[in-house]
Design a protein that fits this description.
This is Tubulin-specific chaperone C. The protein is an alpha/beta fold and about 350 residues long. It has helices at about 1-10, 15-75, 80-105, 110-135, 145-155, 200, 300-305; strands at about 140, 175, 185-190, 195, 205-210, 215-220, 225-230, 235, 245-250, 255-260, 260-265, 265-275, 280, 285-290, 320, 335. Strands 3-5-7-9-11-13-15 form a seven-stranded parallel sheet, with no helix packed on it. Helix 3 (about 80-105) packs antiparallel against helix 4. The chain is globular.
Length: about 350
Amino acid sequence: MAAVIEGNEESGFSGESGAARIQERLQKRHQARIEDAERRKEAKESHSVAEEKSEYFSIAFNRERACIEELLSSCSGAERAVVTEKLEEATTKTLQLQKFLNDSMQFLTQYELRQAQAALQKLQTSLSETKEEALPRKKFAFRTRTKATDKASAQDAHPLPRDEGTPAETGRTQVDGAAPAEQCGFSNMTSEFLTKTAEEIQKRDVLLTHLTNCKVHLFGSPSTLHLKHIDSCEILCGPVSSSVFVDNCRNSVLAFPCQQLRTHNTTDTQVYLHVTSRAIIEDCHGVSFAPFTWSYPTLEEDFTVSGLDRARNNWTQVDDFNWLAAGTPSPNWTVIPEADRKANWDS
């Protein structure tokens, strides 16, 4: 009997002391189970909240998209004044839908985000096509140069090399159309310095097409920016309130803030970007990105006019529609090393 008692004492479970230790261990085990259950509950609730947010986004996004599509459909056969009013409302709603998507990005999956971006892009295309059909424009016509302009061009037949001074502006040509309040830009130009003031482009669509070895400065806040068939150019633009579309661009340097960037068929091009949504590339290679750094005196005012969030820049979040391998970086785009980024835009 004494040996049994001695054995119990050695094992630490004798008397009140042993009972206390057992009770303490049971309490710790019970507390651990409670904490584990709480963690699982919180994780489940968090997952449920995310699902609820995603479901709410899907319902609200699709409802608003249907509303815009109905507005566009109702333009068919309507009077011009009615069409203009409906298109203005559709444009406003489309911009609001873009902002709603931007604000919801943090809880959407990659698949949901791409689906929404594709739907929004389709909606923007439908809006543009409806404008073209319901409010057709005359074909672009280039303004005839005056004799004074031709004389000035002759005087500038030997301009300074581009790296030594500002190229001559006498070759500047403005694209005219029947609806100048809606679109402006430059087309079919080679080795020119081209510029538009804020007053010329404010809240208008800007189209730059078939430019070679040109330097372009666009001040103010365009509604959209379209770049097509650009070769060996430097294009700097103020804050674009909605989207920038780039197609068939090569060996160029681009800089602009925008809500969304869509880039197609582009090679060996640097993009200095401020984007509040995401950048999308497709059928591209050799495209590199860095944060937007161009500056001019009224830049902050133009950011305010554009409605872009100055504090949000997702310039490193690039979706390559030709590269869907999860966890592996796309080989079609890179980040420009800090040491190689352009710092002086005046040269």
